[in-house]
Structure formats: structure tokens, C-alpha cells
Amino acid sequence: MEPFRVHILGCGSALSTLKHNATSQVVEIREKLFMIDCGEATQVQLRRSHIRFTKINAVFISHLHGDHCFGLIGMISTFGILGRTATFHIYAPKELEPVLDAQLELFCAGLEFPVEFHSVDTTWHAVIYEDKSLTVMSIPLEHRIACCGFLFKEKPTLPHIRRDIIDFYKIPISQINNIKQGADWVTEEGTVVPNNKLVTPADAPRCYAYCSDTRYMPQLYKVVKGANTLYHEATYDKQQEGRAKLFYHSTAEQAAKVAVRAKVGKLVLGHYSARYEDENVLLEEAKAVFPDSMLATEGLVIDV
Question: I want to staple 15 with a disulfide (CB 3.0 to 4.6 A). Which of 60, 70, 274, 284 is the partner?
Fold first, then answer.
């Protein structure tokens, strides 16, 4: 099975601390790298994670709060210093485009690679990126400004060839793709070998859901239902539920409620308030509702 991993670069919230960096992640899928959000210090975290800058195909910005995008122009500048030539794609709310254009003109004149901006409507659950193996969909969220999460979904793959059976019947390589597409095999004697004896089922498509920042949305589970891994902000514990509602954030317990209703494989908590020196209080709160919960931390690599 091809790797599908999430690299946590930063999982803190708006107030900088010595413990956590501002929000950023890299999704690694089938040898492609996509960044989600780009807070300050993202470049340093890329270095620490041994992720090659030049392999990042695109960045998805959830919203225009600084802890999710202040690192973007610096990273683009570094791409230029490193001699990038491939187009860099940015998927973000439309309000970023004029700001980014001004920054590029001021700080990054003479870039030798194109920067292509793709406006994302944060109010719609829609496909915003697609290639032959992956789709990325926006997830409308409820925050103080326009904000959305992202759903990374593998496309179904073809079944696996049973090499022992192929060799037994001396089936030529030229017919392998036809068999993967569902064809039977007919021997020289006229015996039909059914397709289900020639292949084993394809791997189930995997899915990663990223939800930050948002206050509790009781219906969110419908959009992320069945995800193998759900990242959901958990800025506060339940004692701060009123504060969470006021500032359009979630508690760990609320994140776990979404995970339960969505029947996800595992829940990753992040975007911690700086008030917590020990986030285990958030983890314990989530686990009481959804046992397969874990804390994000810088340097963590999650197998989706």
C-alpha cells in the first residue's frame, strides 16, 4: 500500500509559545506532498522533519488568521532562493489574493517559478483539487472569519494481480491491465478462468479530514463521515466551553463528539490554547468520549 501520512509541523494556536509552533501540516500521499496552513516557523519545522521544500506541490490555507498563513510569503521567498522552477499552487479564501500579490511584488520580485492562486469558496463543500489518484474537498466551518477545512480522499485503485495464478496459466504481461479492469482469462483449451480467481480486492481508499478552526458544529460529522483520520481543533477543555463558543473554537469533548458520530478511525487533537502547559487534560476529556484519540505534537507522523 502506498504511503498516506500526515506530518505535524505545528499545532499551537494564535499565541506563540516555546512549546508549540503555529499551525501547519504536510500531507504525504503517493509520493506527492501538500501543505495545509503555513504559520510562522513552518520553514524551520520543514527542516526538522527532513521534508524537501521543492517537493511541496501546493498549500491549502484554511483562513486568514496569522497563525495559519504568516509563514507563506517567507516560504515562497525561500523556494526562489532554492531555485524552484515548478508552479506553486495556493488554494485559499479569495481575500488572500490581493494581499499575496502585493507581497510577491514587494518581497519576491524576479521569481523564476509561477505562483498560481486558486480561490476557495469556504461556504461550499466542493472539490477544489483533483488528480488521477486524489481529490481534495473543502469543508465549510464556523469561525470568526471565512474558514474551511479540507478532506483528502484517495480515488479507488485497481485490484491486485495474483502472481501465482498468472504464472500458472502463463498469462502474458500484455493482458495484465485487462484483467485488472475485470476481464476473465480463456486458456488455449477454452477453459474460462474467472476474474475473481486472478485478482485480490483493491485496497480500500483512505481519507483524511482536517478541521481547524471552528466552533462545535453538530452536523459536521456528515461531511467527515468514515474518515480514517480526523484532525479537529481542541483549543479548550469543557470548563472553557463558553469561551470556546464566544471565540468560535471547540473543546476536546466536542471534537470527540464529532469523531463518534462520524465513525472515524482515529481522532487527532490540535490547536491548543497557550493556557495549557499539559494538554493531557484535553486528551483525557476526548478519550472519555472517543477512546481512539491522540494529541498532535510537532514532529509527529501519522499513518492515515
Answer: 274
Residue ranges with strand state E in 127-213 = 127-130, 134-140, 148-154, 160-161, 185-186, 192-193, 199-200, 207-211
pLDDT at 258 over 90: yes
In DSSP terms, which residues pair with 132 in a beta bridge?
Answer: none
Retrieve residue 87's grid coordinates. 508552479
Residue 164 known to be catalytic: no
Kindly name the residue from 37, 67, 213, 237 that is annotated as catalytic.
67
- Report which DSSP code applies to 155: P
Q: How far apart are CA 207 and CA 213, in angstroms?
A: 19
Residue 16 phi, psi dihedral angles, 5° rounding: -65, 145
How many CB atoms within 10 Å of residue 222?
11
Grid cell for residue 303: 499513518
Among positive and negative, which fits the CA dihedral 173, 178, 183, 189?
negative
Render pLDDT for 183-205 as a digit per residue (tens, 0 to 9): 988 888 888 888 998 899 988 99
